[in-house]
Design brief:
It contains no helices and nine strands. The chain is an all-beta fold and 163 residues long. Strands 1, 2, 3, 4, 5, 6, 7, 8 and 9 form a nine-stranded mixed beta sheet that branches. It starts with a strand and ends with a strand.
């Protein structure tokens, strides 16, 4: 069972609201609603921010980020391993890529997510909305005691593994 969607989260410059990225389904179902935006919680589509360095095969800067949520009955445990592009022995690699999150000096924090190295974007979405934003993650050796083997400014990889 899977559902396709797009990554969304709170706006990058808001100080409140939700803190994690979500995979919103492409087809929502509504209960009771109004069509006016009250000053409540908000959610915004996420776009890639890779103008200064793009490690992906495609130019996805300012494109919206798609996602998919799947359940695999035979592999009920899922693990995202940061700073590795492979899985431990006995685990199945679902995909590997780059670790991404909100920019370090934005007001709203986000969780770290693993974006597939064979990155995709929502078709026709190249416009700069500046809602939720996805930036590559680097080690900052001024505040990190494991340098080396981590190196200042290197973009970190990740792997999503199941068992």
């Amino acid at each position: 069972m899977c559902y396709p969607g797009f990554i969304a989260g709170g706006r990058h410059d808001h100080i409140g609201g939700g803190s994690n990225h979500l995979c919103l389904p492409n087809q929502p179902k509504y209960g009771k609603y109004t069509d006016s935006f009250e000053r409540t919680g908000g959610i915004y589509g996420a776009e890639y921010e890779v103008s200064s360095f793009n490690p992906f095969k495609r130019n996805v800067h300012n494109h919206d980020a798609p996602c998919v949520v799947c359940y695999v009955r035979s592999r009920g445990t899922q693990l995202m391993i940061p700073a590795r592009d492979d899985c431990p022995n006995g685990w199945t690699e679902e995909y590997h890529g780059y670790l991404m999150t909100e920019h370090w000096d934005h007001q709203n924090t986000r969780n770290f997510i693993c974006v597939d190295w064979d990155v995709e974007s929502v078709p026709g979405s190249q416009s700069n909305h500046n809602g939720a934003l996805l930036y590559l993650v680097q080690a900052n050796c001024g505040y990190f005691s494991k340098c080396p083997p981590y190196y200042e400014g290197r973009e970190l990889t990740c792997a999503v593994c199941t068992k």
